[in-house]
């Protein structure tokens, strides 16, 4: 497997595309600019199979409906944020983009609990990592040696916790018990900014050291 990183929208949210040998792919957090994302997928001749959301803030879901419609695929989200897709006051669009509130279709698949999942042939572990938001999750792919951490853990930083439902203490606990316990060479694919590793963040992240 290999992954591509595609920053999208005014928030430059990282959308990731994970591809297997058959050129099938999972799409993580299609935040905006659906035309740009669709063009990239077309150029690479990829076959989208599902959308995995790390959480439901506006900058991670803006292109979701366009992508589902374009490829006739389904979305996965944690149960604690299942209502956020349809509610602008919860997903933050009412606050940050009041002129264009996001009212999306509900996710087709609701996940919860620490578990191993297989989605369209892709195997991974679901890690509950709340704190940035109540239903934030990370997706750990052991075979790939990478974790899609959303806005929990960044390169030398952590997610903000001043938005509704945020909890700083909970976020720190999530990072230390769910992410920093992964193998040191695990690549951390964050919602914003460059990739990092568990080893680097364990040693250098000022919020965690």
Characterize the structure shown.
This is Glyoxylase-like metal-dependent hydrolase (Beta-lactamase superfamily II). It contains seven helices and 14 strands. The N and C termini lie far apart (32 Å). The protein has 209 residues and is an alpha/beta fold. The model has no long low-confidence stretch (mean pLDDT 97). The protein has a six-stranded mixed beta sheet, covered by helices on one side. The chain has a six-stranded mixed beta sheet with strand order 7-8-9-10-13-14. A two-stranded antiparallel ribbon has the order 11-12. The relative contact order is 0.14. Helix content is 24%, strand content 31%.
Number of separate strands = 14
Which stretches are low in confidence, meaning pLDDT under 50 for 5 or more residues running? none
Average pLDDT across residues?
A: 97
Radius of gyration: 16 Å
Strand line-up in the sheet with most strands: 1-2-3-4-5-6
Helix content: 10-25%
The ordered string of helix (H) and strand (E) elements is EEEHEHHEHHEEEEEEEHEEH
Q: How many helix segments?
A: 7
Distance between the termini: 32 Å
Structural class category: alpha/beta
Our estimate of the beta-strand percent is 25-35%
> What does the main sheet amount to?
6 strands, mixed
Cofactor: Zn(2+)
Keywords: Hydrolase, Metal-binding, Zinc
Protein name: Glyoxylase-like metal-dependent hydrolase (Beta-lactamase superfamily II)
InterPro entries: MBL_Glyoxalase_II (IPR051453), Metallo-B-lactamas (IPR001279), RibonucZ/Hydroxyglut_hydro (IPR036866)
């Amino acid at each position: 497997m290999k992954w591509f990183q595609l920053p999208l929208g005014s928030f430059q949210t990282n959308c990731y595309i994970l591809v297997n040998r058959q050129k099938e792919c999972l799409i993580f957090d299609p935040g905006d600019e659906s035309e740009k994302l669709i063009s990239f997928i077309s150029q690479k001749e990829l076959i989208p199979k599902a959308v995995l959301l790390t959480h439901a803030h506006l900058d991670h879901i803006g292109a979701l409906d366009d992508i589902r419609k374009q490829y006739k695929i389904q979305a996965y989200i944690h149960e604690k944020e299942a209502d956020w897709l349809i509610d602008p006051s919860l997903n933050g669009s009412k606050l940050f983009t009041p002129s264009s509130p996001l009212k999306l279709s509900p996710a087709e698949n609701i996940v919860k609990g620490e578990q191993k999942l297989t989605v369209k042939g892709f195997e991974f572990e679901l890690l509950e990592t709340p704190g940035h938001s109540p239903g934030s999750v990370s997706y750990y792919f052991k075979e790939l040696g990478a974790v899609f951490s959303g806005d929990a853990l960044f390169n030398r930083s952590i997610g903000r916790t001043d938005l509704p439902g945020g909890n700083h203490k909970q976020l720190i606990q999530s990072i230390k018990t769910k992410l920093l316990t992964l193998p040191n060479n695990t690549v951390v694919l964050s919602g914003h900014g460059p990739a990092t590793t568990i080893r680097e963040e364990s040693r250098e992240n000022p919020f965690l050291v």
